[in-house]
């Protein structure tokens, strides 16, 4: 049985058969989930320079017609589909309201790659969705197949308490998705030596002789215990070393995984591993992330 019952697909006015829509349709087909396809038209971005009301109405009507045609095609394939065209000046707020109103439990959206300068000036919508969405978020950049065949659960063994609980949520969600898609489940962790140093009060950061190696050994042992507990084969366990973002993006670049399932704390700053890393990993052009919200 699928863990997701109602999928919210978020598209822009110029987006049609995108990777996100293909992935959402495949997930709905494999699970029987309801599919809500939404085209969001940003009133300011789209119509800011479009003074002619006839041009506005033509664009809206074009999207209404496309949604109707797409819904008919998807229903013909046996899917339960609803559609909506949303004109808004607040895309984030509108999406969150729609998710709550419809009772969706997964948001599916194409990754929107932003220039670095723009990211410095304006927080990308994808990052805001990761931060504020009350449900899991599947951000899709590129797909080789409609359904994923290789799924990796990324855990953070540096965390304790809530972080450990979130690791379990990540693995359970990844396992459920793998069962639904008949995919292989992998386990992934990055051991970052830079995070294993001890702060010496007033003296900065100190590294005790052999401390990094001890932490690495302890984390590898914890990683293998986690893999044993969830019955993940040794050849599907990936213990990486180095800065988390770099290590994960290199792993993605090697083409070993279709979806990385990561934890996503709901907090104001996206700087912790389970949050900041999720957001920054999205910048890789081949990355597809399923971000699982921490549930207390």
UniProtKB/TrEMBL annotation:
One of its GO terms (cellular component) is cytoplasm. Residues 12-140, 162-293 form the UspA domain. SUPFAM superfamilies: Adenine nucleotide alpha hydrolases-like. It holds the Pfam family Usp. Keywords: Cytoplasm. It is found in: Cytoplasm. It comes from the Bacteria. Required for resistance to DNA-damaging agents. Belongs to the universal stress protein A family. This is Universal stress protein.
